[in-house]
Amino acid sequence: MELRYLRYFVAVAREQHFTKAAKALGISQPPLSQQIKRLEQEVGTPLFRRLTRGVELTEAGEAFYEDACKILAMSDAALEKARGIARGLNGSLSIGITSSDAFHPQIFRLIHLYLQQNPGVTVHQVEANMSSLMTMLAEGELDIAFVRLPCDSSKDFELKILEREPMVAALHPTHPLAKCESLALGQLKDTPLILFPQEVAPGCYDRVYGCCERAGIDMQNTLQSSQFSSSLGMVATGCGFALVPKSMTAITPPGITYHALTTPELYTDIALCWRRFERSHTVKRFVSMLKDI
Known about the structure:
The chain is α/β, with parallel strands linked by helices. The chain has nine helices and twelve strands. Helix 1 packs across helix 2 (18-25), helix 1 packs across helix 3 and helix 1 (3-15) crosses helix 4 (59-87).
């Protein structure tokens, strides 16, 4: 059964008149009457009673009308959904972030702006370490990911750097240098370094390790945390000092003080990462927001 038969039938049922229905549909009356007759033959029973000044639905026609309206509504919704997905207005978007990204305001401003501009898109957020994010992005489990550079595996993807973020030193308030507003990394060489695992962010780890080694910090006497964020918990107990992205100063527990560093090369770049030759319009619409950054 063709959908146009249903549209013709619904139009006649609403207008209760063939000529008026034909005018509303933009066709002539004789072809409309023929199409309705074919529909009744296909259904196997009359759907209208022909009256002197119009038509009315038979009992079968009334039942058929309810279902026809539902079918047409579902058909229109399906078309609109498909067209919306094709334009990137509907669908879903999976976004990956690292634990340290969770404190960077620009990332969530972008996500909020995207949701405002694309209310028909469902956004899923996944938090994982850098290596896991790159694997999930490569395997299609994520659509985009916010990452911290340097990151060697990110070279396989398209990148847009959003901001260069300096790293800061986190100390316990009882540390002798806790009153200093800024520090040279070498001043901390007698304090144990609390370092995140290399697999969490390999490129960032190598940069931190190299800077600390050049500053004379004993890299054989480091303590290991599971993430950037957990290193702050260890600092709060007086275990040592940690180096974290500046945006993480949003975490302000009583047992931590933050200090700018005079080491210019100790920074990390926040970047958006997506697959090359990406065809998803939801991804393209998100990326398009970055043109003004």
